[in-house]
Design brief:
This protein has eleven helices and eight strands. The chain is α/β, with parallel strands linked by helices. Strand 3, helix 1 and strand 4 form a beta-alpha-beta unit.
Length: 260
């Protein structure tokens, strides 16, 4: 367990693997922690130095007052890299983490070698959807939304076949601080990169899930079409494709992020 004290937030992170290996940074989705990347870490840390962190307001990172923004989350990453004396990294972000990656690619491109945008979109949902969820959490806490979120995170088949994995994910979501979750809902609600995404010049892989209703395959294809040279792959999965298809996810990353 390690913590980095940044300007206004304490970030919990985990850095494992050989110090001589290139660094692969994972950025978590809304309502999750760095543990969402447990299915990929053991295999990938054989090739990479794997850096995972809890986004502010999540896990063991601190909750800061007020509304968060994707810019703020992106700056947390650059400050964490500065603190760890890491000049540039391979980056993989899912959903909210993917939007953090977009911001970095557009505003701090020298910090990224290559970029994976997984189950994300230049614009996720509508203000009405996010405001309804925010109100539900404020009134009823995290448990009031957890069942519905699991239905979006995982496909019906996966929920039936892997109840333990779904239960662990549900517990992760329900343990998220409500104020931290609400603040990050606002960050995702307000982020819109549709007019700027084509300016990304970093090699990019876009991952989508066939059954993802939150960030659809159409959203993924839009990213791949807008970002010059981007490659698109689609998994038989819903929103948390790295948990539903862990081996293929790790394989795609390993081939896209060559260690040498």
């Amino acid at each position: 367990m390690a913590f980095a004290q940044l300007e206004d937030v304490r970030i919990h992170y985990d850095l494992t693997g050989s110090q001589n290996a290139p660094v692969l940074l994972f950025s978590n989705s809304l309502g999750s922690t760095l543990s969402m990347w447990d299915p990929q870490t053991p295999a990938l840390q054989k090739e990479f130095r794997v850096l995972r962190y809890d986004t502010r307001g999540h896990g063991q990172s601190s909750v800061t007052p007020g509304r968060d923004t994707i810019e703020q989350l992106g700056r947390d990453v650059t400050r964490l890299l500065d603190k760890l004396e890491l000049e540039s990294v391979y980056f993989c972000g899912l959903s909210m983490g993917g939007q953090t990656g977009m911001w970095l690619a557009l505003n701090a491109p020298t910090r990224l070698k290559k970029l994976v945008l997984s189950n994300t979109a230049a614009k996720i949902g509508s203000p009405e959807i996010w405001n309804t969820r925010i109100e539900a959490v404020r009134k009823g806490g995290m448990k009031s939304i957890s069942t519905a979120v699991m239905e979006r995170w995982f496909s019906r088949d996966f929920r039936a076949k892997s109840p333990d994995s779904v239960g662990s994910a549900k517990g992760m979501l329900e343990s998220t601080d409500p104020e931290g979750y609400v603040a990050n809902c606002g960050a995702v609600r307000d982020y819109d990169a549709r007019k700027t995404i084509a300016a990304i010049r970093i090699p990019t892989l876009v991952v989508a899930g066939t059954h993802d209703a939150a960030t659809t395959p159409a959203d993924g294809r839009y990213l791949a079409e807008q970002i010059p040279g981007a490659r698109y792959v689609e998994f038989d999965a819903a929103h948390l494709s790295n948990i539903e298809r862990p081996e293929r996810f790790a394989s795609e990353l390993s081939s896209f992020f060559p260690a040498q």
